[in-house]
Amino acid sequence: MKYRVLIIDDEPDLRRLLARAVASFGYDVQCADDGRAGAAICQTWAPHLVLTDIFMPEQDGLETIRWLRKAAPDIKVVVMSGGGGVGDLSMLRAARALGALQVLAKPFDLADLKTTLAAHLPPPDAAGA
Q1: What integer pLDDT is reported at residue 51 of this predicted model?
Q2: Measuring CA to CA, which residue among 39, 10, 45, 7 is closest to residue 23?
Q3: Contacts of residue 53, Cβ cutoff 8 Å, sequence gap at least 6
Q4: How far apart are alpha carbons 50 and 113 in whole angstroms?
Q5: Side-chain-facing half-sphere of 19: CA atoms under 13 Å
Q6: What is the C-alpha separation between 125 and 83, in angstroms, rounded?
Q7: Dist CA 103 CA 90 (whole Å)
Q8: How far apart are CA 87 and CA 73, in angstroms?
Q9: CATH class as words, domain 4-119
Q10: CB-based contacts of 99: which residues, under 8 Å, 6+ apart?
């Protein structure tokens, strides 16, 4: 069994880059372009961790975290955001209050992403990957 990571971000290039990186770290990966699509994937695929952007159309990251806490409270959540303004800081604080384990500020190094995943999921080889 490999640990499953769902990436939710509305930027297609970033989504593809993150998916390739996470797969290269040894995790199974699926992607969604907004929180609504991510919620649908969670209902059938059951990821162990969700890496979600905050600012997205349709359903933003905060709405997604709220939904996850109700529908699938065991799924770990890591938030990423590239804003940096005062409103963004309050959104990131809100994400933490809703249960996000960690915040990654965009842009971040892929090494930081790998370290973050390893901090919240057992190493992929521990899952028999």
Answers
A1: 98
A2: 7
A3: 8, 9, 10, 11, 61, 79, 80, 81
A4: 12
A5: 15
A6: 35
A7: 12
A8: 26
A9: alpha beta
A10: 65, 68, 69, 77
Q: Do 49 and 26 form a contact (C-beta atoms < 8 A)?
A: no
Tokens of 31: 């992607």
Place of tokens 């640990």: 3
pTM of the full predicted structure? 0.91
Q: Record the tokens describing residue 107, joined without a space.
A: 């842009």
Q: Residue ranges of the chain with pLDDT lower than 70?
A: 83-89, 125-129
- 1-14: b (≥16 Cβ within 10 Å) or e: eebbbbbbbbeeeb
Is the separation of the CB atoms in 27 and 113 below 8 Å? no
Domain parsing of the chain, residue ranges: 4-119
